[in-house]
Amino acid sequence: MKSLKYIITIGIFGCIMASCSDFLEEKGYNTNYTYYNSNEGLNALVVSAYQNGRGMFSTSNTPSGIIFQEIGTDMYTIGGDGGTDFALYTSAMNPSNETFSAFWTDCYNGVARANLGLKYIESNTTMAADIKNIRKGELLFLRAYYYYVLAIHYGDCPLVLEPVDAPKLNFVRSPQKEIWAQIINDATEAWNLLPWADAQGKVTGDYGRVGKGAAGHLLTKSHMFRYCQKYTQSQSDPKMNEDRGATTDDLDLAIKYASAVCNFGTGAGSGSNHTLSPDYADLWRFNPKTGGPTPGDYAGPEILFSIQFSTNHFYNNQTPDKVNDGGNWLHMMFTTQADGMPMVTENGKGTESVSRGTSMGIGRDLITGRGWRRTSPTPFLYADNGLYGPQYYASSKQGKLIDSRLYKSHVWVYYANQTPSADVSWKSFTNAAGTFDPTSIGKTEGSPRYVVGDTAIVFSVENLDKRFQSGTRSEKLALARSMEPYWYIPMQSITKTEIGNRGIRDGITNTFPTLIKYLDSRRASTNDQAGFRDYFCYRLGETYILLAEALAMKGDYANSAAALNIVRERAAWKEGESKYSHYWKYDGGNYADRNKSTVDEMKVTAGFISAMTDDARLVFFLDENGKETEGELHRFEYLVRNGADFFVKMLKERNSFAAPNVKPFHRFRPIPQKHLDRVSPMDPNGQNYGY
Q1: Beta strands 202-203 and 434-436, pairing class
Q2: Would you say residue 343 lies in a domain?
Q3: Is position 225 within any domain?
Q4: pLDDT digits over 467-482, tens only?
Q5: Which of 12, 127, 327, 588 could disulfide-link to 132, CB 3.0 to 4.6 Å?
Q6: pLDDT higher than 50, residue 7
Q7: Which of 527, 521, 523, 562 is CA-nearest to residue 545?
């Protein structure tokens, strides 16, 4: 498959390698700008503008993508390891923090490449007109995308629309309403110039180039963000009121573009070839026993815009021996440390209550992954009344019983890959919570619970308080573990860690179901940091939810429910599809229903949506996006879209680590000090309020 991932761009001011005839053939060129006057050089310049999207996924201890979008939100907090304390909204979140500078620089380098490309597009007279229009559309989309990211996080920022080919210091920040106007202007022109991707997701024969679907999705998000200015006008701190330049037609335009991309309702017949993957799990293609993605990354019509990586180090901007530079590092970031996990039940203060030993038979390999655990899910993600609580389903069922996304988004089972040194034999057990005799379930005392190849760890979302009526939390946990043929980790019943003990192995910041979406067993060595997975920046599943929300805001509840149900039906368990054994063992489901469809229980009605208050509906769609796009680096933007007070409220309710320190001004990030130090004369509006 021809793909943009096979183009490496060392930089606008370095060497660009590309080929307009075949993306798999590379040629080297020097930095003589006359090269861009040729069709081949211009094509290379266009492709290079995609390059800066990669910067958010590598090259630092914790890639800026998860720092800016996931860590420190209501769904993800700091993990048991790594330097992410500024996600606690402490003084570490300051203009001198290198993360903010790197993120800013990546975005503006992308803008610079797009601006240079647009200059040479205008002067080119030899490229075929249809191809020239498409390449111009790509550049306009990419410039709009980079400014979208900047506007979300920084608000006011310099608006640079021409190439800068000489030293320039007099940058001033433009009001964010001007940034949003430019984003929408660029994306609208891109929409008019770009074709639809074909049924395989390719544009002009290449998978990875943006098409009309990407532009429509960006326009939907931008118009929705601008429309939601209405929620930002009366903040508790008036200095956090926002002027995004909203217009009276923002909501209608969001519906227009989303409907066209989804080929839904008034957009039916748009020509869009984008469709949902039939199975949510097929997007991630990872088997906890055999690895993945298998047979390779999903590359199909659900993807509207992806940041691409390659299994060839050369195309990831690496030399073969530099396996810890470049590539996609997210496979380590949302990953628990399953290897060497001690079989210890703690009382919550670091003191052992029950210990079976220090090695349960899981060693680090390409499938268990390298568990950097830079971020961990907040309890909101798995609590009974949290993200998958019954309040989100018209059937009033718990999401864990009917919504497959909970299980298909995470790794719930690990298998022993070496002989355990810990005592994993069956034993009778008694404490204040109860008594267990292994012979009661047909097991022989002293026989091994498992051997190499068997299940060694199982995570669940069970709350043991509902199973055992007496005993302390740790006593209930120890008793439950004595009953299982593996090490059992029920997330609602292990230690709720605090900042000071976040590294304990039996606590929620260190031990949690790994997000499956970035795991990658194709690396040559277990400790290689550079992964190869593409990052799916825009997916059709998100577009449908945005459309459903916009229709609900418009008062069209029937079409809102119809649009949302398309995503909900995909998320349901299908007739004959086997649910995880958790369904009947821990979640309260009936064994007889293990292969029964949950489609009807997942659907919503117009009445269900219309009965919500406006505030409740904002939270409902926020969390519908959370279920569909968990960990896909969108959460921060959805929280702040509805204003600083909404952002703070969600964090205080759902993220106990962030709650003590988060303030309304944290809705924006600090302008990097490195930028401010180079501006002359000084910008009177140089820094965001609060920093």
Answers
A1: unpaired
A2: yes
A3: no
A4: 999 999 999 999 999 9
A5: 127
A6: no
A7: 562
Does some domain include residue 357?
yes
What's the rounded Cα separation, in Å, for the pair 3 and 18? Answer: 12
Range of the domain at 422: 337-370+413-512
- Region 12-30: what's the mean pLDDT? 33
Residue 60 above 90 pLDDT? Answer: no
In angstroms, what is the C-alpha Rg of the chain?
26
Q: Residue 95: helix, strand or coil by DSSP?
A: coil
CA 531/CA 534 separation, integer angstroms = 9
Q: Which DSSP string corresponds to 445-511?
A: TTSBS--TTSEEEEEE---GGGT-SSS-HHHHHHHHHHTSSSEEEEGGGSB---GGGTT-TTBTTTS
* pTM for this model (two decimals): 0.94
Q: Is the dihedral of CA 156, 161, 163, 164 positive or negative?
A: negative
pLDDT score for 15: 35
pLDDT at 297: 94
The Cβ of residue 483 has, within 10 Å, a number of other Cβ atoms equal to 17
Number of domains making up the chain: 1
**Residue 519: pLDDT band by 50, 70, 90 thresholds?**
very high
What residues contact residue 248 under an 8 Å CB cut-off, 6+ apart? none
Q: Tell me whether residue 7 is in a domain.
A: no
Q: In the predicted model, what is the mean pLDDT of residues 172-196?
A: 99
